Amino acid sequence: MRKAVRRTLREVTVKIGLERLDTQEGVMVEALLDSRATGLVMSSEFAKKQGFKLKRLERPMNVRNMDRSLNKEGPIEYMVEVNIYYQGHRERTEIDIIGGQKWTVILGMPWLARHNLEIDWRTGEVKMTRYPEECRKQWRPVQGKSGWEKQKEEEAKEEVGRKREEKKKKKK
Description:
Layout: E1 12-20, E2 26-33, E3 40-43, H1 44-50, E4 55-61, E5 76-86, E6 89-98, E7 105-107, H2 109-115, E8 118-119, E9 126-127, H3 133-136, H4 148-171
C-alpha cells in the first residue's frame, strides 16, 4: 500500500479588493503572498487597464531579480495609492508599479510581517487574526455581510446618518 504524501504549496494567493481613491471603484484580484519580495508591487499593465492614478516617485528605484540582476523592465518610477480590502480589513497603502510581471499584485514581506497572517501551507488557507493596532482602528466586521463592497455600502450609510445628525444639531 502506497503512503499518501502531503505536498506543501509553492505559492499562496489571496483574493483582495483594490479600490481606486479618485473614483472609489473597486476590483477583486488574486494577489501573491511573497516573503521574498521587499515591498508591494502591481503590474503596470494591470494598473493602466484599470485606470489607477499613477504618481511619479521623486527618485526611481532599481529592481533586482532573484538572481540579483537588474530587472529588464527598468526601475520603478510610479506608485499608486489604494485601499486594500481583505477579510473585513481595510487599509490605505501605496503600491509600486512594475512592468513585465506574472502577478497582478504581490504583497511582500513588509506587508506580511506587519499583518502577521496565519498561513496553512498545505491547504493555502490564510487568516488575518493578528493585525497591527493601526489596522484595528479601520477594521470592522459586518454581521451577515460578506465582501468589501458591502462593508463600503454600510460605511456610506453611516456617513449619511452622521451628516443628518450634524444638521439636526445645527438647527437646534
